[in-house]
Specification:
heterodimer, A: 314 residues, alpha/beta, FAD/NAD(P)-binding domain, 5-stranded parallel sheet, elongated, B: alpha+beta, D-Amino Acid Oxidase, Chain A, domain 2, 5-stranded antiparallel sheet, 31% helix, globular
Chain lengths: 314, 487
Amino acid sequence: MITKDLVIVGGGPAGMAAALSAHENGVKDMLLIERDQYLGGILNQCIHTGFGINYFKEVLTGPEYAGRFTERVKDTSGIEVSLKSIAVKLTSDRTVTFLKPGKLETVKTKAVIMATGCREKTREMVHIQGSRPAGIFSAGLAQKLINIEGLLPGKEVVVVGSGDIGLIMARRFAMEGAEVKAIIEIQKKTRGLLRNMVQCVEDFNIPVYFSHKISRIFGDSRVEKVSVVKVDDNLNEIPGSLFEIKCDTILMSVGLIPENELIDMAGVRIEGAKTSVPGIFVCGNSFKIYDIVDAVTKDSFLTGKLAANYIASQ
Amino acid sequence: MKTYDVAIIGAGVTGTSIARELARYKLDVALLEKEEEPAFGVSKSNSGIIHPGIQNSPGSIKGRLCVQGNLLIRSLSKELNIDFKESGELIVAFNEEETGELLRLKKEAEVLGVPGLKIVNKTWLRQNEPNLASEVIAALYAPTAGIISPYRLVYDLAENAIRNGIEIFTETKVENIVYGKPNFEIFSSKGLFRSRYVINSAGLFADEVSKMLGIDYFNIRPRKGEEFILDKKKENLTHRLILPLPSKTSKGVIIIKTADGNPMVGPTAEDIEDKEDLSTSDSGFNKVLSSARRLVPSINDKDIIAYFAGLRPVAGDDFIIKHEDKAPGFINVAGIQSPGLTTSPAIALLVTNILKDNGLALRKKFIFRAHRKKTIHLFQNPLLKAKKLIKKDPSYGDIVCRCEMVSAKEIRDAVRRGAKTMDGVKFRTRAQAGRCHGSFCTARIMKILAEERKIPVTSVTKRGKGSEMVKEGRFMLSGAEGAKREV
């Protein structure tokens, strides 16, 4: 068992901002734990531009945006970073247990900031029926496969949902020479940013079907086709509107969910940026789903300050 | 060319159980499987229930085998070092008429020899199963019901069978069998096999295999079951298996505790035509959800992390386990639907006896290694033990699947023990089976599989040829730069 004034769980944009802010506000004994081998979180796979327009008044890529904070964190001697470290347990007495290669470590703290990000909703959560072949990916996984691993998941793609990641990945596949056959959105308008509709969809002539949903996935080994149906204002299927699209890949971009399992399992409730337990804080996408990272950074700086004030008051 | 003593067709739980039992004797045994890995057919969607033996008619083969199998699985799980939990089950009644039905079931089961049965009342249920619907007035409690991981049972049986000299041939589809007196000639996608005896445990395709020898008195009808898996957070939803009163075709939608902690809910029972149709439907989804909520009202569809369908191979009401005199040496083991998992060790003994009765000499091997080293699942160990394991091998501390907490070490172990595909890794370790559905860990597991199997990452499949995960490698790093990249 070790002790720290502050532990921050998650080294993405939220965790890094919270750490820097807590440091500026007087916390000198802190540990930032990150499960990946680098800081930066999901920004590392977001190689497109559009980051930092509000915060830095500059257009940056994801890795560039992350890099600005990674450098500052590295240069700040009061922030100890533990990479390849995954938190496995949080208890309401502000104790964090984490795992890294070769070690299971327990830390007793004065305050904890949870900045564990979010995950993508799956095909199961939106109840798309049919078979379960290879070729169904969350948009984020497809992004990782293309941008980090250098693998092209498929060549004839249908995107389900018009969230920003889905739009950006539609463009990414188009740029790699894949045929993006359709973006299927159940709502009447996009869930993504207007600029992504223009830059990712219109500029690449990708067909978008609003008020449509995938009713079934076909294929035994690999995805072969989907059936698509139009829906009315109450999202009910309109009879006779069914048509099929041949494809080998389906990307799911139907929304994000905060990853709060550790908080839930500790029996802690989220109440704003604070929680039901004094000294446990939440920020970034694990607090709520943000549209742009600039706002994550701004809000997480506030959370870092709240935690610092809490520690000072003890 | 080698002539086998026994060829077994189909490496599901039935085929692997028979193979492992025959491994005790001085026999040359070949186990032929059409899929890339064992358990990829009927067994992969089994719910993992070890039934106590209620709900079978006293005169049936499966009634007799079920009680015996429930006993045998205990010693088998100790030998194979696989977790078996005696969770107990409750068959619930919503009214007086149903309570009467429970008494009838109890009586019938006692004739078959099911031990420890008792009727429990509302007060008992409130205390012991607080999440159960308040409308339930009584239940038949069977303490000997249990749970086991169906895939791990098959994989561990296969592994132990191989260790004891059985040969397993995967991606080997039987296309024809000729009775060439005195031996059978089996023509497969991987060439010709010759064997003195043939056991047909081909699951959904057992009728087609049987017909190859002109034995056509039965047909296998697939009966589809759709099931949910709930988030591990709901591990303590119930403490026992919860069953409604059975209908004619199935045991109904059950609240199942699983060996991995995640509760499972289902299955439906729908007779279909297509033996490969594993699709799920809106009607099935709603049926499972509403039937489950009738038993445990707090089940929330937000907690559903996976949804899938399986097929039961139905050949009438009972199992068909018999030597076919029309083709001496050919044994059908067909129509093994529920309780197929529970009965599997008993079926293996029965089939061994049938072989003996039909002239196969059974001489025990001098050495039979019944025991198997336990597969380690890090977080199924107490924290202190986990700590020791991590210290001993640092890669236990390297978590690949964050939702189910599966380490790189466990995934490498699974591959070294025989996993060849993404599904094979999933079934053995639960990596990719949690709430994110593999969004975070798929890329890394693909790389580990490629590295361990020494194949390009583009050749990694979900469940065999044709199900490659990606279509093309694009900018893969090679040489020194590639080597720097961590797997």
